[in-house]
Amino acid sequence: MAIEAKKNSNDTIVAISTPLGEGGIGIVRLSGSESFPLVRKIFECHKSNEPDYPKPRYLYYGTVKDQNGEIIDEALVSFMPAPHTYTREDLVEINCHSGIINLRAVLKILLAMDIRLAEPGEFTKRAFLNGRIDLSQAEAVIGLIRARSEEATKASLRTLQGMLAKTVNDIRDRIIEVRAPIEAEIDYPEEFMDELPTIAATQIELLAIKDKLETLLQGVTRNRAYQEGVAVAIIGKPNVGKSSLLNRLLGDQKAIVHELPGTTRDLLEGSLMLGGYPLRLIDTAGIQGSDDPVEVEGIKRARSVAAEAQLILLVIDGSLPFDPDIVKMISPISGEQRLIVIINKSDLPQIVTADQVKKQFGEVTAVSVSVLKGSGIPLLEKAVADGLDQHFGELSDSPILITFRQEEILTEALLGIRQAERALLSEPAEITSLLLQQVWLTLGQITGDTAGDDLLDRVFSQFCLGK
């Protein structure tokens, strides 16, 4: 069995940095001190004899050849010297034609030289280790790559530009300022007694720190919905227009529509951007009593999806008398879910009214539509967007990307400040100082100042190869 060579941060690394497949361009990226000489061995360019070759950030045209001198691909190559690169190391990008065979051939040639394959996220990890970005900015890179909406992209960019790091560092600096006189009181009580701030003044400072932490946490839920998307379940009895609604919202014939009830027996999905939220619409089987084992399984899945969805669109037929059994369909809905009742078939004489729906379901949003004619759909879309805004809460004035990890850290720090507030009034000064020190250390995990190797490995393992 082959023994893997020991990896370290001084190795020159390489990876394919673009998705494999057909496309206009594919990039093989190298970083490390040997990047320039290694690429020059395989890249033939007619300007290679010029005295200033390779000029920094100059795009050279030439061919990549293997060890036998056979041409593998035409390429445009840029040489970027440290420290003004993504990793703050010498970095080379080989721009090839985007094809699996030729990209892997170029990679194989390089791996046969004094170089190793980069680990997931290793380019960004080197950017962090070399001081180009902090840990919050590194996580923002993941956010940009995974962003599923314009709002999520904006939030990630704000963090990438250092907004979160600046705010966190300002809070940490303020904690030091609060701790300094407390430590002076502990170590030199007689010398600084007349100059120490009062308890009331310290309380004001702690309140300001607490407000800043709460502001950071404000809007986290909605921000995450922008980032990860919202699961929306379309439920109802058979033949009320669920599949037609899915098709209408998507503008596509995604689901088979037929007048016979029970046409939809499996889950059908589609994606939609609405109000800044990326929605995952799920059309479910009509919920009814049935002996058909396939239909029974579809109904079982429908109930399961409804239980996990963040928004439920309950479709009813407004041209038929209201069926009290419909209320049972939503009885498992929790307080963490949002419900909108859609009274469909408004193009037909209506029996069910919005007031009747609200009498049955309480203060719920009810929208009358004709999925067949398209009337009422804009009102429904607005109701969905407004409902999600209410459900996910307000967005802070300067929204930035807050990951699950960062949210846990900020929540822990907020708890620590509240404990320090209580300790200030009832405990020795040493306790308050220790609590504030712990908050300072905790917040340092956001930027990476106090992060251990295990945490760094966990963060950067989320990246794809080549980034």
What is the count of structural domains? 3
**Ranges with pLDDT <50 over ≥5 residues?**
1-6, 254-266, 287-298
Major sheet attributes: 7 strands, mixed
Count of DSSP H/I helices: 17
Distance between the termini: 30 Å
Order of helices and strands: EEHEEEEHEHHHHHHHEHEEHEHEHEHHHH
Roughly what fraction of the amino acids lie in strands? 15-25%
Give the helix/strand class. Answer: alpha/beta
Q: Which architecture of the largest domain per CATH?
A: 3-Layer(aba) Sandwich
Query: What is the CATH top level name of the largest domain?
Result: Alpha Beta
Integer-rounded radius of gyration: 30 Å
Please explain how this structure is put together.
The protein has three domains: 13-118, 2-Layer Sandwich (Gyrase A, domain 2); 138-218 and 401-460, Four Helix Bundle (Hemerythrin (Met), subunit A), CATH 1.20.120.430; 229-392, 3-Layer(aba) Sandwich (Rossmann fold), CATH 3.40.50. It is α/β, with parallel strands linked by helices and 467 residues long. It has helices spanning 35-42, 100-111, 122-129, 135-146, 150-160, 163-187, 189-192, 199-217, 220-228, 242-250, 293-308, 325-329, 354-361, 377-392, 404-426, 429-447, 453-460; strands at residues 13-16, 23-31, 43-44, 59-65, 71-80, 91-98, 116-117, 230-236, 268-274, 277-283, 311-317, 338-344, 365-368. Strand 1 and strand 2 form a beta hairpin. It is built from 17 helices and 13 strands. The strands form two sheets. The protein has a seven-stranded mixed β-sheet. The chain has a six-stranded mixed β-sheet with strand order 9-10-8-11-12-13, with helices on both faces.
